[in-house]
Specification:
binds S-adenosylmethionine; two-stranded antiparallel ribbon; Trp Operon Repressor, Chain A; alpha/beta
């Protein structure tokens, strides 16, 4: 998988790939990253990439020319390039998107800054728009990283143990069951005793029930979806 980040601030993104799981994925050649800076494409003599909003309004917008030339260059270099624009207007990013996108060869993240991107660029290049939530960030670098991080976990070989994702939250609509580690008693609170008895089929059926209860408690929206799918009565 190649991730290409189109950003005015590559240094906001680079350090995230310099440690832990994503660093190991790069070392193993499972993912690689590249950066394009729209400023390098600006034809303005001061390399300007922003301007006032047409029709007035507070703030500045990313101008179309540098982004257009940058994205055209990328489109020429990479066949089947998939352009993702992280934007508040996008559909909400889900685990199912993460899994689907993990099968792509390359993904280009176009990071907005200031008050965002001229709409004509979005119309011309975007294959998908994603929002990471109903709040506003200062730029698309964090949202791109969130999406790239999540996609990476679904790429074969990235996680040390591929079993890790099987029972995770959202895999089957539901949240993951409560988890515990050693010590068995901590601050007078005990690990669920069944988890310590080694009967794997009992543990698995208990975890299944706990996962349903936890989802009902924390995420009634997901629980209702699950109920509809399973004709679940309780
Ligand atoms: N003026 C824009 C609006 O009201 O929709 C917000 C622009 S925001 C300050 C600048 C950039 O941050 C956006 O272009 C986008 O790349 C990123 N961004 C902000 N909030 C986001 C969100 N909820 N999801 C994904 N990206 C977001």
């Amino acid at each position: 998988m190649k991730y290409i980040f189109v950003t005015l601030f590559p240094n906001l993104i680079k350090p995230y790939f310099e440690d832990s799981i994503l660093k190991r994925a790069i070392d193993k050649n499972l993912i690689n990253i590249e950066f394009y800076n729209p400023r390098d494409y600006s034809l303005n003599k001061h390399k300007k990439v922003d301007n006032y909003l047409c029709g007035g309004g507070a703030g500045l917008l990313m101008t179309p020319q540098p982004l257009n030339d940058c994205l055209e260059d990328i489109r020429k270099k990479y066949e089947n390039s998939h352009f993702i624009f992280p934007l508040p207007a996008g559909k909400s990013f889900k685990q199912s998107d993460s899994k689907r996108l993990s099968k792509k060869k390359s993904i280009i993240f176009v990071c907005g800054r200031y008050e965002g991107i001229d709409e004509r660029i979005i119309e011309e290049f975007a294959d998908e728009l994603f929002s990471i939530g109903d709040y506003i960030l200062t730029g698309g670098e964090l949202s791109s990283l969130i999406i790239a991080d999540s996609i990476s976990r679904n790429i074969d070989g990235v996680l040390g143990n591929s079993q890790s994702i099987i029972n995770e939250s959202f895999e089957n609509i539901l949240l993951e069951a409560p988890s515990f580690t050693k010590p068995n008693i901590f601050k007078n609170s005990e690990v669920i005793s069944e988890f310590l008895k080694g009967n794997h089929s009992k543990i698995s059926s208990l975890k299944n029930r706990l996962s349903i209860m936890k989802t009902k408690y924390y995420r009634i929206d997901l629980f209702n979806k699950f109920k509809m799918r399973e004709n679940y009565e309780k």
